[in-house]
Amino acid sequence: MRVLTCLAFEHHLPSVLLAGLVCVISCLLSMRLLRRSEESDSVVQVAWLVVTATCLSAGIWSTHFIAMLGYRPSATVSLQVDETALSALIIMCGALIGCYVATLKFTFAKALAGAVIGVSVTGMHYAGMMAYNLDAIVAWDMRYVIASVVFAVFFGALAFEASEKFDKGLHRLIPGGLLAIGVVSLHFTGMGAMTVVSLGVSEGLDPVTFQILALTTAVTTLVVVGAGGAGYAVEASLRERTDRRLRHLALHDIVTDLPNRACFTALVEQAIENRKGKNIAVLVIDLNRFKEINDVWGHQAGDAVLCDIADRLRGHERPGGYAARLGGDEFGIVFPVEGETELVEELKLIESLFMTPVRHADFEIVTNASLGVAVYPEDGRDCETLMRNADLAMYKAKTDPLNRIQHYEHALGEAVRQRRELAQDLRTALETGELRMFYQPQIDLKSGEVCGYEALVRWPHPVRGMISPAEFVPLAEANGLIGRLGDWVLETTCEEVAQWPGAPKVAINLSAIQLNDPHLVGKVLQAMVSTGLSPSQLEIELTETALIHDLGQSLNVLRRIKALGVSMALDDFGTGYSALETLRRFPFDKIKLDKGFTDGLSDGGRSRAVISAVVTLAHNLDIPVLAEGVETADQLDLLNMMGCEQAQGYLIGRPAPSVNGQPPAALDVMWRPAEQAATQASGHAG
Ligand code: C2E
Ligand code: CA
Ligand code: CA
Q1: What would the pLDDT profile of 235-251 be if each residue is shown by its tens digit?
Q2: Are 497 and 509 in contact (CB under 8 A)?
Q3: Would you list the DSSP string of 335-387?
Q4: Ligand 3 centroid to 590 CA: how many Å?
Q5: pLDDT tens-digit map of 659-685
Q6: Can you say whether residue 502 is alpha, beta or left, with left for phi > 0 and alpha for psi between -120 and 50 degrees?
Q7: What is the largest CA-CA distance in the chain?
Q8: Element spanning 571, H or E
Q9: Which uninterrupted H or E stretch holds 405?
Q10: Ligand 1 centre and the CA of 528: distance in Å?
């Protein structure tokens, strides 16, 4: 009651309101600034602490000062400068200490900090009262004094404790509000503690001066507090923007701006959660031959391909569906799906997005992809299983060029596990030198003499026995081991063949991927120089498919190898595109006719017609033809008759290792000169 009458009758109301306004604004803002300093560390934290303490002390001191100026006791008043300064100093120090304590990490640090502020506000208030010289007898009611101290400490502690808990939305106003209540209640309870009996002697300051002083103080304080607030606002918005950017970067891929793997996992989980009775399809998609695109056209082209595909995927997104880049040339897609037909149709559409050629600079890059699909719930009930199974299906798709879309099947897991194990074994085999070179003789059909050998790599696996290169060479290609395998084949073959008497010729198979090795030409030269093998003894076998990937680049490499004096053979002719263009543009020294044609000889017509055509064509281009896979004397006679220059096959000799520095022997072939063979062959044919 005493407090209310004091407020109503002994105060200038506008000044009281002004004081209240300054108090509320500065308390609200200070508590926000305090949170800000708690969130930062080191120098930034110290800076924010100073700003907080400045705003807080300026605000509280002005509240007190303006309210004092609004006090209209029934006595003349004057102000003492020293004590006024002291009161400001007390709250400055108190605010600094309090704010610092608030950042400490022990239990009740916040409450203690608030209590420190409460105590210093009290100290400030009563020091301020000392500065207030009244020409009167002043009586103090100690109950009010004690109550004022309790209010200040209690609300101070409460406000600081609340600062951590109420940190969202409008709740953020609560701590500042509590603090303001503490400051205001302290002040007016403290004022109510005084009873003034005027002596009416000396002259004090007049009320107008008081009002001007009050206004000036309020404005100055609000400017100080406003500056702090502006700093806070600018920094908060900058932080928010940076946060948003960082969050985006953490969840998106830089090149394509699609969600990344981490984000995709979350999207799959979300899709499962929101499925509403539908199935969820998870796709893992791998671009085929992306490495080649990078190697051949450069990384810019590679990035252009990725971005183009990303744009198409974005444009194609269905409701509830998302596309992501999982890394490298791997994409992920998740979408809800009703039934099998819908899924199949959607998969075809998605595949077509990857098949459309990408235009980059002046050329078109042809791409395609392998898709692995796993569907919730049958192929997995959580994101991890679904993605792993889709991945397994994708690996399967990669090994099957005819089925680029593969659905997960249980057996896939086992097959892929075995392949991975075998790839690991191959890595070890390359390190421990488990591989061997075998050589298969080739004969000249005019003379019946051995005219060369083909080097074929062998892997005697310690557990599985002999593994065919038809199995492990593609495995090496898929697992990035073909480079080392190829280097080993080149070095070992040159080393072994260089020991053989009579300087025979040897043909080495190169994988398409080896053509991308920028050091290939140097390696071929180095292998010959270090072993003493003459270039005329070395032949390189390449399949047409190895070349067709990038004609320009391959042609360049081949020309440089040929310039060393090494010859070139086109392997497996008749199985690939068999484009005349290839033969015209590449400087081949030999065409190896695929075993399939030799096999087909006995069936009559078509095979013979093709062989004849090829032989005629080759002769026109002045390139000799070697027939592969000759197993019977009849085949040999027929080939001889049709004009093939050379032959290779089990009839002549199986691939075998070099023993004691000698090449494996050719069998005694039932060879006869062409004219004789012709009569013989026509006999067979008839
Ligand atoms: P290719 O280059 O077409 O090699 C000929 C394959 O036919 C060899 O199989 C050989 O053993 C087999 N062969 C030869 N004559 C006959 C015959 O009369 N009848 C039958 N049924 N088969 C015959 P191999 O050694 O299993 O090699 C398979 C494929 O692996 C090769 O096909 C070649 O593409 C690849 N390869 C082998 N060695 C290497 C190598 O050192 N490097 C690379 N990059 N690839 C290799
Ligand atoms: Ca070959
Ligand atoms: Ca071949």
Answers
A1: 888 888 888 888 888 88
A2: no
A3: EEE-SHHHHHHHHHHHHHHHHSPEEETTEEE---EEEEEEEETTT-SSHHHHH
A4: 12
A5: 999 999 888 777 787 778 777 766 655
A6: left
A7: 152
A8: strand 567-573
A9: strand 405-407
A10: 23
Q: Give 685 Cα–ligand 2 centroid separation in angstroms.
A: 29
Q: Per-residue DSSP letters for 616-668?
A: HHHHHHT--EEE----SHHHHHHHHHHT--EEESTTT---EE-BTTBPPPPP-
Of the listed ligands, the closest to the CA of 473 is 1
pLDDT-based confidence at residue 686 (cuts at 50, 70, 90): very low
Closest by Cα among 517, 516, 520, 570 to 543: 570
Q: What percent of the chain has pLDDT over 70?
A: 95
C-alpha torsion 139→142→148→150, nearest 10? 170
The tokens for 662 are 């000698």
User: Which atom of ligand 1 is found nearest the CA of 437?
Assistant: 41
Q: Whose CA is nearest to atom 8 of ligand 1?
A: 456
Pocket, ligand 1, Cβ cutoff 6 A: 440, 456-457, 468-470, 473, 489, 509-511, 571-572, 629-631, 649-650, 655
Q: Angle, nearest 10°, between helix axes 2-10 and 173-192?
A: 90
**What tokens were used for 623?**
């390139």
What pTM, to 2 d.p., does this model score? 0.55
Domain architecture of the chain: domains with CATH: 2-243 (no CATH), 261-410 (3.30.70.270), 433-685 (3.20.20.450)
Q: Residue 409 carries which side chain, given as an amino acid letter?
A: E
Distance CA 466, CA 495 (A): 23
Tell whether omega for the bond before 377 is within 30 degrees of 0, i.e. cis: yes
Residue type at position 63? T
Residue among 453, 456, 492 whose CB has most ligand 1 atoms within 8 A, to mutate? 456
Is 396 in contact with 316 (CB distance < 8 Å)? Answer: no
Distance CA 348, CA 367 (A): 15
Please state the atom number of ligand 1 nearest to the C-alpha of residue 543: 34
| Ligand 1 nearest atom to the CA of residue 648, by list position | 15
pLDDT, tens digit (0-9, with 9 covering 90-100), for 53-66:
999 999 999 998 88
| 456 Cα–ligand 1 center, Å | 6
Q: What angle do CA 186, 3, 202 make, to 5 degrees?
A: 90
